[in-house]
Design brief:
Layout: H1 3-9, E1 31-34, E2 37-43, H2 65-87, E3 93-104, E4 137-141, E5 150-158
Parallel strand pairs: 3-4
Antiparallel strand pairs: 1-2, 2-5, 3-5
Length: 160
Amino acid sequence: MRIEARLEERGLALPGSAKPPPGIELSFAWIRVRGDRTSVSGHGPLKPDGSIAELFGKVGVDLSPEQGYEAARLTALSVLGSLKRELDDLDRVSAWLMVYGLVNAAAGLRGDDQRDNRLFGLDSGSLRHRSRGARPRGAGVATPPLGLPVSIAAEVEICT
């Protein structure tokens, strides 16, 4: 099944291109394609129009864990939106090689309730061979960019 169809089945929509706040200039590319690998710069949660979602601060202090999960969901959709714009087709993603998330978390906040997204198939591995994908890695941070609650970067393998 095509990735876009799976998104639609779940009632999920990809946001528009990221619109940084006034006065902020970005000196990097969101996506860099080199051969069969694509690097995804750190993304944050976006509204459907591409503006930053109004979720700021520390999960466990300023935001509830549920709001943190919502920020993570919006951030993942932001990553997928950038990949879609660059690759034209999310089905070109053949494997997630690395996923790295940063959470602006209160001291002592635990992430025991791990939620995953199997949008790309079993274990987020190869779409064709159903091999195991990279284990998502994450870390709590004290001060992420713009006070965002979540930032996600990744590296994917693509079909050329």
